[in-house]
């Protein structure tokens, strides 16, 4: 289930994120303000702005996939300056995630996962996914959403959640 | 894994949420303002305030557990007026979640899950957990965090994520 709770769902959430950014872009166009205002917006002076929230959401998704499987992730320079560039970054991560298959995660559960700032400490793959990557992914997508909403962009819970595979 | 990705992690996140509320309470005490100001704070005029974010986070967790297993959830009246009452609501959900065992979720994956507003449509248990309950839980905890942070409460990512089971 590690594949479904990370890759499949991260892909969906990044696509939702791209669509709420588009809503921000359209709002800027309609109200005739510079969309960069939204990209630089933040909820607290010492919190990351919208651009950085999107960059970290992308990195959380790609590095989770890469760390759990050992497959190299695409490199991004953190130099996006426009909505279009951010959407293109999201798209590149969505494409990367799209290359994974459930079987790539066969050994992921007990894989030792670490990152530079953990100074040699590690989590097991399942712990990393459930307690670190997933909460972080949702944190940054929700914060991006909150920044847009706080700035008057007409986004709602359905934009955040995306389509549900309802059955009758 | 449904038990670990919902119950175990929801319990942890609700405990983290209780602690960030406490940070808000202390900030109100230190700066000598009425903590109700924080409880009524919101990020947009048409978004739910802090109190409601906490109530929905609690309900998302308890109803996910209840819908996936068929075990009745505690009833809450949505009448909390203070930080203490909100923390007590969180505690009651944490206690409820603490009564579940992994085995309670043996049939959860393919269970048909519905809720009143879905007008008869349903999701399978795994879809409901991964695409609905989990993103919603994180959404409301993150939004509660964002409201506090936006109002100058000294909360950081570590408060949101909680302790990691690091190994050396």
Task: Characterise this structure.
- Two copies of one chain form a homodimer.
- Chain A is an all-alpha fold.
- Chain A has six helices and two strands.
- A two-stranded antiparallel ribbon of chain A has the order 1-2.
- In chain A, α1 runs parallel beside α5 and α3 packs parallel to α4 (83-98).
- The longest helix of chain A is centred in the first third of the chain and has 29 residues, at 2-30.
- Chain A is globular.
- The mean pLDDT of chain A is 97.
Unreliable spans of chain A? none
Helix/strand order of chain A, N-terminal first: HHHHEEHH
Shape of chain A: globular
Q: What is the beta-strand fraction of chain A?
A: under 5%
Kindly report the oligomeric state of this protein.
Answer: homodimer
As laid out across the biggest beta sheet of chain A, the strand order is: 1-2
Radius of gyration of chain A: 16 Å
How much helix, percentage-wise, in residues of chain A? 55-70%
Annotation keywords:
60% helix; globular; mainly alpha; homodimer; two-stranded antiparallel ribbon
């Amino acid at each position: 289930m590690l594949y479904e709770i990370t890759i499949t769902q991260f892909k969906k959430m990044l696509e939702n994120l791209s669509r709420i950014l588009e809503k921000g872009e359209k709002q800027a166009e309609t109200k005739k303000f510079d969309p960069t205002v939204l990209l630089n917006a933040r909820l607290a002076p010492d919190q990351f702005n919208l651009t950085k929230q999107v960059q970290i959401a992308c990195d959380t998704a790609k590095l989770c996939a890469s760390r759990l499987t050992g497959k190299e992730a695409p490199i991004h320079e953190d130099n996006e300056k426009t909505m279009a560039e951010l959407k293109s970054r999201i798209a590149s991560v969505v494409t990367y995630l799209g290359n994974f298959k459930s079987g790539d995660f066969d050994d992921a559960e007990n894989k030792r996962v670490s990152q530079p700032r953990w100074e040699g400490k590690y989590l097991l793959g399942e712990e990393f996914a459930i307690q670190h990557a997933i909460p972080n992914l949702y944190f940054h997508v929700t914060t991006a959403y909150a920044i847009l909403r706080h700035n008057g962009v007409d986004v709602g819970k359905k934009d955040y959640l995306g389509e549900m595979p309802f059955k009758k």
